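Hey, I'm writing a tutorial for new members on how sequence and structure tokens pair up, and I'd like a real worked example in the thread rather than a made-up one. If someone can provide the structure for the chain below, I'll link this post from the tutorial.
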Amino acid sequence: MSARVVLGIESSCDETSAALVRIDGGSLTVLGCTTASQDALHAEYRGVVPEIASRAHLDCIIPVIRRTCESAGLSLHQLNGVAAGHRPGLIGSLLVGLSAAKSLAWALDLPFVGVDHVHAHLVAGLLDQPCLEWPAIGLVASGGHTSLFRMESPHELTLIGATIDDAVGEAFDKGAAILNLGYPGGSRLDECAEAGDPTAIPLPFTRLATLDFSFSGIKTALRLAACSPENAGRTGDLACSFRRVLIAQLIRNISRALDEYPSASVLIGGGVAANRLLRREAATLCADRGVILRIADPRWCTDNAAMIAATGALRIARGEQDGPELAAHPLSALARGHRGKQERTK
């Protein structure tokens, strides 16, 4: 198979991103990626406002695509395919990127594919890396999802665990709000936690009998601890203790998944994959278990088009494509509750 270059477009929430990825055999190389952040637009609300997000995507989408092509030294006529994230996400935001991708594919007579954002977070760990050994345990840890997968290949995913309440990234953001750390909360809490004592504040650790996750009780415990007069001024210790119990639950379930589904590798993606404690603990776990760890580079942890382009490139390389009728959808096809407890895609 000759090398192919695919343009990916990401607009599922509050980042407008375009990227060019080359697929050559099993190798995925990022040729260029441009992302326009909306953090400043949503900061005063301490969360994403959908209408503001979709209008900002409209303003940024064409300039972002143009800058990506310029940075890679390629023209649109050198592309071999176009991909866009079409689920899950904010419908208004998704429609901007999806419409742009369909239009480009039609105008250039190129194959077009839609990409599931959750799937793309796992593929992010394959970018600019040697080929991975399969099967793998895959964890997506983000603001909207906490899902654990058994992966036979980049194309075959079976859901084996998921959060029953908050996503871990959502818990981090809410914890940051409780501690008044500002927005975006997850990264600020992670930074604050680095200077704290992880055992200073006793917080509960959720232990479910399954491979599922639960974070809402830990968030409530943090609120109660933060309101206690004896913890006044101990923001660093509160942040560190909170981070410790959240990450411990992720690591525990990865370890249990490896016991239940022996695998050669562990693949971690999503915004929380940038968390420093998670990266350290995952490295220790995989070294102890003798398995390969692929955790997405921090550049590809948050929402970005490189992971969309890479996932689309994998589909196009298999001869797959979608029609112009492909719709935006607020839910992932891989999330529990969409089609049942065990989800599989090929």
